[in-house]
Amino acid sequence: MHAIDTTPDEALPEDVLPTTALQEAGRLMTVCNSCRYCEGLCAVFPAMEMRRTFTSGDLNYLANLCHNCSACYYDCQFSPPHEFDVNVPRVLAEVRNESYQAYAWPPAFAGAFERNGLTISIVTALSVAAFILGFVAFRDPSVLFATHTGPGAFYRLMPHNAMALLFGLAFLYALVAMGMGLRMFWRDIKEPPETLREPPSLWQAMKDAGSLRYLDGGGVGCMNEDERPTDNRRLYHHLTFYGFMLCFAATSVATLYHYVVGREAPYYWYDLPVILGTLGGIGLLIGPVGLLVAKRKRDSVVQDEVRLGMDVAFIAMLFLTSLTGLLLLFLRETPAMGMLLAVHLGVVFSLFITMPYSKMVHGLYRFTALVRYAKERRTLAESHATAG
């Protein structure tokens, strides 16, 4: 590999890196750049080899490129108890988690990442309580606990326009906040905006992200509770991600049904929104549970244990969103529908407004890191072809 040239003002010495985790990451990348034994395991090491020195932006880029498969820790001849104390998965996890806080928008809310599990729990409890109290305050018990069937049943408890406005604003805020954070990340790694408009780089990143290519430990699988690799984490990630996307697709189709076709929810069992939502909901039940079990079994030495609450909180939020949604689907024609709708809406609202301050952001930073890596690989290949 040829190193990418950096100007002197970009290359900061280790003692100038702003945090202890970044300083340690800079040290490890220097050691790994001298060894290069792990270059075939994932994208991190080939990307590392393209650099001679490491700025904080470079290290944040590499950290978000890392999928934490941990293969490099078990393969490394310098991992503990060696005096070099090389533990790339744990250190990059620390840098990655710090980067979420560094790029948070608005900056005043960056503290939400400090005690993320507690923050999300409190916001969720308050959101659910607010919706329940709102339903109780504005709906007569004879309506709230009645059995509602047919089109528009949900809107007898909360008007559609009010629901659309409230959740539309919450989702818009989440998109703006995450977009601003992504903008700061992209600027920090000093990548031009044009890269995000390059079809080859975008397509390669989509394939790598969609298949979780770099969660396979170089082809043998992800390391879990021992040195025997498996693909369990990749399977659970797939169920969670594609389950979420199916639920998003169900909501999008339902929006088209409402505004274009003029059909109001709830829909019949055989309607596309229900089919997509049910399949997605099942994925969001199995996937998060599997991820939590896998996380408990993983070797603690490769994890950022200080911030495990952030992972657990986000996984639990996805699980609760699915669980309350499926319960609402199965019990929507019973007197329990009113309270279930309030609980489900409270959980979804909490998911939306905490999304920019949860583990959700890792998907955005990782995808854009993959876009940059795809461009770097292509540029390097083209330079080799020209030189040859």
Which helices and strands appear, and what pairs or packs with what?
Blueprint: H1 20-35, H2 44-49, H3 56-65, H4 71-75, H5 88-102, H6 116-138, H7 141-144, H8 160-188, H9 199-211, H10 232-261, H11 272-297, H12 308-330, H13 337-354, H14 361-387
Question: How is this structure best described in words?
Answer:
- With 388 residues, the protein is mostly helical.
- The protein contains 14 helices and no strands.
- It has helices at 20-35, 44-49, 56-65, 71-75, 88-102, 116-138, 141-144, 160-188, 199-211, 232-261, 272-297, 308-330, 337-354, 361-387.
- Helix 10 packs antiparallel against helix 11 (272-297), helix 11 runs antiparallel to helix 12 (308-330) and helix 12 (308-330) packs antiparallel against helix 13 (337-354).
- The longest helix has 30 residues, at 232-261.
- The two termini are 14 Å apart.
- Residues 1-15 have low confidence and may be disordered.
Helix content: 55-70%
Ends: how far apart?
Answer: 14 Å
Count of DSSP E strands? 0
Mean pLDDT: 91
Main sheet specs = none
Give the low-pLDDT segments. Answer: 1-15
Which structural category do the helix and sheet elements fall into?
Answer: mainly alpha
Oligomer: single chain
| CA radius of gyration | 23 Å
| Annotation field: number of helices | 14
* Portion in beta strands: under 5%
Shape: elongated
Order of helices and strands: HHHHHHHHHHHHHH
